[in-house]
Amino acid sequence: SFSLKTVASKIKNGLMPVLDHFAEANTVFDLQDVFQRLAFDVTLTLVTGYDSNSLSIEMPENEYAKAMDDAEEVAVVRHVKPMFLWKLQKWIGVGEEKKMTKANAAFDRSCAKYISTKREEIINQRIHQHYTIEEKAYDEDLLSFYMKLDTSKYNLLNPKDDNFLKDIIKSFMLAGRDAIATTLTWFFWLLSKNPEALTKIRQEINTNSPRSGKSLDPDTLNK
User: What range does the domain containing 73 cover?
Assistant: First the structure.
């Protein structure tokens, strides 16, 4: 499936080279940051079809990822600050709310770029007519799927509305990145505190992994 291929490709071409680089340089690194970049790239690819390559040896800053961090930080502050105060700051455009305004602008710029590029891609690379939407959906990103929706079946959805598509991108990015990154970070922290579990996992991997050096396929992973 598209999701499995995306994850496998990012692990092979993104995560492993970065970890190898840190290991060879004997460098201490922030594992949570690595997982956030991994989750961001995977989620963005699944949602838009484009890989930002934020998980690379250079560890570059990504405008969209930074905007997500800023927006989440402001959202937390809103929960502890009186509503009238943060709304006043939003209206005036100062304090933390100024950061939220900038984050939203970054969201809009990034989403507009992805949507525009995807529209051109769909126009220039027509999907073969013998594929149905249901068949093609298994091998394409979410943005493409929504853009090709049969509006006669889904009257409330408007794939031509950029705001609708932006909301789709934002929602799935916010839901995907932090959930994956937090879970992975917590999992590896638990492994560090439970060496006996780590040993069992290593034994299971060694027992079931292919000896030919080939990548693990879904059937092998399900063992």
Answer: 2-194
**CA 99 to chain CA mean position, Å:** 22
Looking at the structure of the chain, the number of domains it has is 1
Would you state the structure tokens that stand for residue 162, as one six-digit string? 């950029």
Structure tokens at 149: 């929706």
Tokens representing 135 are: 């068949």
Determine the Cα–Cα distance for residues 110 and 145; give it in Å rounded to an integer: 19
pLDDT value of position 216 = 59
Count CB-CB contacts under 10 A for residue 41: 25
CATH number, domain at 49?
Answer: 1.10.630.10
113 near 62, Cβ under 8 Å?
A: no
**94 domain-assigned:** yes
With a cut of 50, which residues of the chain have pLDDT below it?
Answer: 130-135, 137
84-111 pLDDT, tens digit per residue, is: 999 999 999 998 999 999 999 999 999 9
pTM of the model: 0.85
> What is the pLDDT at residue 67?
94
Q: Which of 143, 62, 68 is nearest to 107 (CA)?
A: 68
Q: Between the CA of residue 135 and those of 130, 132, 180, 206, what are the distances in Å? A: 10, 5, 27, 36
SS3 call for 52? coil
63 closest CA partner among 24, 30, 27, 108: 108
